[in-house]
Design goal:
The complex is a heterodimer of chains A (561) and B (207).
Chain A (H helix, E strand, L loop, with lengths): L3 E8 L12 H4 L1 E4 L23 E7 L4 E5 L9 E4 L1 E9 L5 E3 L4 E4 L3 E3 L4 E10 L2 E7 L1 H6 L3 E6 L4 E5 L6 E3 L5 E7 L6 E7 L6 E9 L6 E9 L4 E5 L18 E3 L2 E3 L9 E5 L1 H4 L6 H11 L4 E6 L13 H14 L3 E6 L8 H8 L5 H9 L5 E3 L8 H17 L6 E4 L8 H13 L5 E7 L6 H13 L4 E6 L2 E4 L4 E3 L2 H11 L2 E4 L25 H8 L4 H4 L8
Parallel strand pairs in A: 11-17, 22-23, 22-31, 23-24, 24-25, 25-26, 26-27, 27-28, 28-31
Antiparallel strand pairs in A: 1-10, 2-5, 3-4, 3-6, 6-8, 6-9, 7-14, 8-10, 11-14, 12-13, 12-15, 15-16, 17-18, 20-21, 29-30
Helix pairs in contact in A: 5-7, 6-8, 8-9, 10-11
Chain B lengths: L1 E2 L2 E8 L16 E5 L2 E2 L12 E6 L4 E5 L8 E5 L1 E8 L7 E2 L5 E9 L4 E10 L2 E7 L1 H6 E9 L4 E5 L5 E4 L4 E9 L4 E8 L7 E7 L1
Parallel strand pairs in B: 12-18
Antiparallel strand pairs in B: 2-4, 2-11, 3-7, 5-6, 5-8, 8-10, 9-15, 10-11, 12-15, 13-14, 13-16, 16-17
The chains are: A alpha/beta (561), B mainly beta (207).
């Protein structure tokens, strides 16, 4: 495998606009300073050429997928490039157009999406990997010693290469379709011919073919030894961490709560800061709008994402992808962007029935879902149900039962429990929160309040947040907006910057509602005007750029590199 | 990085017995399932020790053998749909140093009077991890270890063990503990996610 790391140093010069740094027309032009570093200390097979910097073309692509700047080689990349504010990614593309050839590896790669904001510096790394399929053919000693004539043709649906007995070079094929391997050993009446099919060849994969003859029967045997060039080198740099000790009663390998605070697996206190993202409503039908939005969500500095889900998944509406696989893909994508995933179920929003809550909670212990939940115990937060609104002791008893259901199934995650009254009523949290925690054998509960019109006064916000902290009840603000309820002429304003500042002062996490997709009169709650995050709404700009917003306060969790 | 691909070739033939039935009896066509096992003879694994099970269309196991070598070469079966499964052990260990688990299955249809061949490719169900410690750690530490925790189990690599482990697909939590020469401890946990079966990963640990 050849890995070239391109260190892209992005620097945007100061712009003169005063409060809209993310919108290009207002943010104006900035400078992109691109420094390229090629790491030549990489694995290289003996019969492949080294990668030349001239082999790769560098494109800077905006959120619409348009290439805004392009360079024919790494060497052509200048030190300073002018770019509009916005979301971009850097793409490396091989300049080779070869479909089938010896010694023609093609490398490429795409960076994570990154946001250019005025007066900020962003560094990203771009890794280039093999994009085509590598094939080598070798012959056993028996063949080499007993036959003077032998050769193999490896043919794809695009072209073919002849690997004769002297050939030691690697062939590179466009990664499409199957490979037909046809070996001819010997001549005349003793000639043996056989063929073999390698189906669905993959990029970044090395197929090592060995031709041999079984001595007993004379039957030709072909071994296919797949070498995965792209298994991945994962570098872990260990830095001294003096984390909070996990309580004895908590046996999870993931997050835990203690004395009112949330800690990651390293024992580092974690304040989740991010946005809500409506996967269930906008990823079906192969749209993947919310899924793809995870990149810009991370680019705008979120360290966590609250993922909307429901229990009525119908795989026919999801390209026949099994639900467990869809969830696995979502979680992996979030983690790969540095985001802590939190799943929540929206089925019983506003519902007060204990039975309905327990039915919803049973989703997590369904065997296929349970398996995925367990896979991500180290990093996943489970928000049992969005805004289930049981009252008084019903709230207490239903959640105690739901938590025990999950624990008995082996789920040790931090479980997130919303307030009653459409998430806004913290009374049952104050009244029964500690009892719910005490009933949990893992004592791993995080409460969540949703702050909308009930929190129109700053004093209400402060009073409730401070009370939770004083009671050492672990708490986040799982949803909030800048406006909600009231009338069209007189909407209720919510002092959201006060929520941000109080959360920062008290060490609490929060998730703003929501990235995109709001309708029914609350479209104003869209943080971004487009799924790609090219332009943020004023609401979104505030969440990102406020002095207590994401850019200034969201710190990545320590367990993700 | 590689995984080995093992192919079990099953030659399945079905023969229909002539049955004399009355009009009131249900007519059931039966045949013989003939299994001929073969390999390319170059395998490191002894497939004779692999397990084998045959399930009917309802998913019910109708025959199973702890070892392929114990299976008869001819089995009477009703005409119908079947799934033949082969596996290197009865259960996949969640984590292991030396017992990688291979599994494969293939559906087949037993038709009257026809011979059917089935190829089963047994592939590694684990992912393979090679854990490498930086030379600074190896040369300048009293001890060092890395524990990979999956959803169900964990396994520790240190100076006394192999640095290669096989683990179930999971988001892995890698906990590294390094005791330096002065007795101080450096430790940290990192998550590796998006890992897939049949794939070999190299984890390079440094500080």
């Amino acid at each position: 495998m050849i890995t070239n790391a391109l260190l892209l140093l992005l620097w945007l010069t100061g712009c003169s606009s005063n409060d809209t740094p993310l919108e290009s027309e207002e943010g104006g032009m900035g400078n992109l300073s691109l420094s390229v570093d090629i790491n030549e200390a990489v694995d290289e097979v003996s019969n492949s050429r080294s990668m030349s910097t001239a082999d790769v073309k560098i494109n800077i692509v905006n959120a619409e997928g348009q290439t805004v700047v392009s360079y024919n080689s790494i060497n052509e990349v200048p030190e300073s490039i002018e770019l509009d504010a916005g979301v971009y990614k850097a793409v490396a593309v091989s300049t080779s157009t070869s479909l089938v050839a010896f010694e023609a590896p093609q490398y490429g790669g795409t960076s994570a999406e990154f946001a250019i904001q005025k007066e900020q510096t962003t560094s990203i790394a771009l890794e280039c990997l093999l994009q085509n399929t590598k094939v080598t053919v070798d012959y056993s000693d028996l063949i080499k010693n007993q036959f003077s004539t032998y050769a193999t043709v490896v043919k794809s649906n695009i072209g073919e290469l002849l690997f004769d007995k002297e050939e030691t070079k690697a062939g590179y094929y466009r990664s499409s379709g199957d490979l037909n391997v046809s070996a001819t050993i010997g001549t005349g009446v003793d000639q043996k011919i056989t063929s073999f099919l390698i189906e669905n060849i993959q990029p970044q994969t090395h197929y090592k073919i060995t031709i041999d003859i079984d001595q007993g029967t004379g039957k030709i045997v072909i071994d296919v030894d797949e070498t995965l060039v792209d298994g991945g080198n994962h570098d872990i740099i260990v830095t001294p961490i003096e984390g909070e000790a996990r309580p004895d009663y908590n046996t999870s390998i993931g997050f835990f709560t203690k004395e009112g605070k949330l800690y990651d697996a390293n024992g580092m206190e974690f304040h989740p800061r991010g946005v809500n993202n409506a996967h269930f409503w906008f990823d079906s039908g192969n749209r993947l709008w919310a899924f793809n939005a995870l990149s810009p969500i991370a680019a705008y500095h979120s360290n966590s994402v609250r993922m909307v889900w429901q229990t009525n998944y119908n795989k026919e509406s999801w390209n026949n992808v099994e639900e467990a696989d869809q969830l696995r893909n979502m979680f992996n994508e979030a983690i790969s962007k540095g985001l802590v995933p939190m799943i929540e179920l929206h089925d019983v929003t506003g519902n007060e029935s204990k039975e309905d809550l327990l039915k919803t909670a049973a989703f997590y212990v369904r065997p296929d879902i349970l398996s995925v939940m367990k896979e991500f115990e180290s990093i996943l937060l489970i928000n049992i149900a969005n805004e289930w609104s049981g009252k008084n002791t019903v709230y207490r008893d239903a959640y105690k039962e739901a938590v025990i259901m999950l624990r008995n199934a082996g789920l040790k995650h931090t479980i997130v429990i919303d307030g009653s009254g459409w998430g806004q009523d913290m009374t049952p949290i104050f009244d029964y929160g500690q009892e719910i925690i005490d009933a949990d054998p893992q004592k791993n509960i995080l409460f969540s309040v949703h702050m909308y019109e009930n929190y129109r006064n700053e004093s209400t916000i402060t009073t409730n947040l401070e009370k939770a902290v004083e009671m050492k009840l672990p708490l986040i603000v799982g949803e909030f907006g800048f406006q909600h309820g009231g009338t069209a002429d007189n909407p209720i304003q919510i002092p959201y910057t006060h929520i941000l500042s109080e959360c920062e002062r008290l060490g609490l996490g929060w998730y703003a509602w929501s990235w995109k997709g709001n309708s029914g009169g609350v479209d104003y709650l869209d943080l971004s005007n487009d799924w790609e995050g090219n332009t943020l709404s004023d609401w979104g700009k505030g969440i990102v750029n406020d002095v207590n917003g994401l850019a200034n306060t969201a710190k990545k969790v320590s367990v993700i590199n | 990085m590689k995984y080995k691909q093992y192919i079990l070739a099953f030659l399945i033939s079905s023969l229909i017995f002539s049955c004399q039935t009355t009009q009131n009896e249900e007519r059931v066509s039966k045949g013989n399932l003939q299994l001929v096992f073969g390999s390319n003879g170059r395998l490191q694994e002894d497939i004779n020790n692999y397990g084998l099970s045959i399930e009917n269309a309802e998913g019910k196991v109708i025959l199973s053998f702890d070892k392929i070598s114990e299976a008869p070469t001819s089995i009477p079966l009703a005409v119908g749909e079947y799934t033949v499964k082969a596996f290197s052990a009865s259960e996949m260990p969640y984590v292991t140093f030396d017992a990688p688990y291979y599994y494969g299955e293939e559906s087949c249809t037993i038709e009257s009077g026809k011979e059917t061949s089935v190829n089963i490719t047994c592939a590694l169900k684990h992912l393979k991890l090679n854990v490498n410690f930086d030379s600074d750690i190896i040369n300048n530490s009293k001890s060092y270890s890395a524990t990979a925790a999956t959803a169900h189990a964990d396994i520790t690599v240190d100076a006394t063990t192999s640095n290669t482990v096989f683990v179930e697909r999971s988001a892995l939590l890698i906990e590294t503990v390094i005791e330096q020469m002065d007795g101080s401890i450096i430790k940290g946990k990192q998550i590796l996610s998006g890992l897939e079966e049949q794939t070999e990963y190299t984890v390079n640990i440094s500080y």
